[in-house]
Design a protein that fits this description.
This protein is an alpha+beta fold. It is 29% helix and 19% strand. It starts with a strand and ends with a helix. InterPro entries: De-etiolated_protein_1_Det1 (IPR019138).
C-alpha cells in the first residue's frame, strides 16, 4: 500500500506499488515499476475496480470526472473549483500537457498515461479553491501559480492576472521579490 484517498463516503481509492517505491529506494517509480489502483467499497468490503498504471479507462475517468478525485467532500462544493472536467481553459492546459508528453522523445500515449496517473491519489489539501485561480475568470501564467499547491519557481516579475472577458490586466501578485526590486532600484 503506497497511497490512498477517500473518493466519497463509501469508496477509497488505493494505490499499490512495489516495496522499493514505497520505501523510496527507487527514485523514479514510473520508469522502474508498475502500480495498481484499486477502488474499494468500505461498507460492502468489496473491491469495485482494479486498474494498472497505464489504464486508458482510469485516465478517461480522471480526465472527465477530475473533481471526484480531487474533492472528497462534494457536499460542501466550492463554486471556484477549477479542473479539466469542469473548465474549458483548465482542460486546454491539461490537453497541452498531455500532448507535450506524447510528442516528447521517449514519450507516447502509454508514457503520458503513466505520468498523468502517477499524480493519483491526490491529497485533499493539495487544491486551492480561490476565485483568483478560476480560469474562467482570469488568465495567468500557470508556470508560477496554479490551483494545485506545489512548489513553483519564483518569478522575477509579478504574476499578472488578466480578465478572461476583456483581456485587461486586473491585478498583479508579487511572489516574495517585491523588496528585492525596491532595494535594487536604490543602488
Amino acid at each position: 500500500l503506497w497511497k490512498m484517498q477517500l473518493l466519497d463516503d463509501d469508496h477509497i481509492f488505493i494505490r499499490y506499488a512495489s516495496e522499493d517505491v514505497v520505501t523510496l529506494k527507487t527514485m523514479e517509480p514510473n520508469n522502474h515499476s508498475s502500480s495498481l489502483f484499486v477502488v474499494y467499497n468500505i461498507w460492502k468490503n468489496k473491491i469495485v475496480a482494479i486498474y494498472g498504471n497505464q489504464s486508458a479507462e482510469l485516465l478517461y475517468l480522471y480526465e472527465n470526472f477530475c473533481d471526484s478525485f480531487r474533492n472528497a467532500n462534494l457536499a460542501m462544493q466550492s463554486q471556484y473549483t477549477c479542473s479539466p472536467s469542469n473548465n474549458i481553459y483548465s482542460n486546454l492546459i491539461h490537453q497541452r500537457f498531455k500532448q507535450t508528453m506524447i510528442g516528447a522523445r521517449g514519450g507516447g500515449v502509454q508514457e503520458a498515461t503513466k505520468r498523468i496517473l502517477a499524480q493519483l491519489p491526490i491529497s485533499a489539501q493539495s487544491y486551492s479553491s480561490s476565485p483568483f485561480l478560476d480560469l474562467s475568470l482570469y488568465s495567468y501564467d500557470d508556470k508560477f501559480v496554479s490551483v494545485l499547491e506545489r512548489p513553483k519557481a519564483c518569478a522575477e516579475f509579478p504574476i499578472r492576472f488578466f480578465a478572461r472577458d476583456s483581456g485587461l490586466l486586473k491585478f498583479r501578485i508579487y511572489a516574495g521579490v517585491q523588496n528585492q526590486q525596491a532595494n535594487s532600484g536604490r543602488r
